[in-house]
């Protein structure tokens, strides 16, 4: 990116699984002007406030095909950027190695589950100005590219695990729901559970 979109944004509430925008394909980005740039700045601010490594537009309630990332690659080097209208190419045959690492999602906070994914991914799309980009992701960055592109296709990682694993995931999220206000990360995570009988318990 020739312009810095990583600063100057406003933190927005993160949309949760179950909201329709999270489970529907997005609309392609066709205008690469200030409206998009404002969204991208806000997405970076929101991702950082939530301590994430990637964020799709659907996660702030916008059905546009764009995601941002600030994520270490397979060599632990931080890579950051924005991709509009992404597609992901994954290795096949003997070049395909699955990484079974646990995965989480800012839109289903507090839950983690093993999601086998290829440890390399090529992500193609456009930058914030409409220029074509081709990015090679390894390690966690490869997972990030796949996870965020899934979001833009209406898929959450909970759709990729077994029913038993999904129930366990949902239980984890329910157990920690008290930590995450409805407008998180605009409001920060709670640091201690509400005492029984307090008003916070009923919110």
TrEMBL record:
Ranges for region Disordered: 184-203
One record GO biological process: translation
NCBIfam families per the UniProt record, alphabetical: pept_deformyl, PRK00150.1-3
Catalytic residues (positions): 148
Name of this chain's protein: Peptide deformylase
GO molecular function: metal ion binding; peptide deformylase activity
Described purpose of this protein according to its UniProt entry: Removes the formyl group from the N-terminal Met of newly synthesized proteins. Requires at least a dipeptide for an efficient rate of reaction. N-terminal L-methionine is a prerequisite for activity but the enzyme has broad specificity at other positions.
Cofactor: Fe(2+)
Family: Belongs to the polypeptide deformylase family.
Originating organism: Arachnia propionica
Catalytic activity: N-terminal N-formyl-L-methionyl-[peptide] + H2O = N-terminal L-methionyl-[peptide] + formate
Enzyme type, top EC level: hydrolase
EC number: 3.5.1.88
Pfam families: Pep_deformylase
Record-linked Gene3D superfamilies: Peptide deformylase (3.90.45.10)
HAMAP family: Pep_deformylase
Domain of life of the organism encoding this protein: Bacteria
Binding site for Fe cation: 105, 147, 151
Cofactor: binding details: Binds 1 Fe(2+) ion.
Coiled coil: none
Swiss-Prot/TrEMBL keywords: Hydrolase, Iron, Metal-binding, Protein biosynthesis
């Amino acid at each position: 990116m020739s312009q810095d979109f990583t600063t100057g944004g406003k933190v927005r509430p993160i949309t949760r699984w179950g909201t329709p925008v999270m489970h529907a394909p997005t609309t392609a980005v066709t205008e690469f002007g200030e409206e998009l740039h404002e969204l991208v700045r806000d997405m970076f601010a929101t991702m950082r406030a939530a301590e994430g490594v990637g964020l799709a537009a659907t996660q702030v309630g916008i059905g546009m095909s764009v995601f941002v990332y600030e994520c270490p690659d397979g060599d632990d080097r931080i890579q950051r950027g924005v991709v509009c209208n992404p597609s992901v190419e994954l290795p096949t045959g003997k070049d395909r190695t699955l990484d079974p690492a646990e995965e989480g999602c800012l839109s289903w906070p507090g839950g983690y589950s093993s999601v086998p994914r290829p440890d390399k991914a090529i992500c193609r799309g456009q930058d914030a100005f409409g220029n074509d980009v081709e990015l090679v992701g390894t390690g966690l960055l490869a997972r990030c590219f796949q996870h965020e592109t899934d979001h833009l296709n209406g898929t959450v990682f909970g759709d990729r695990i077994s029913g038993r694993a999904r129930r366990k995931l949902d239980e984890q999220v329910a157990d920690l729901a008290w930590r995450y206000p409805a407008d998180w990360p605009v409001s920060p995570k709670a640091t201690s559970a509400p005492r029984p009988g307090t008003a916070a318990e009923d919110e």
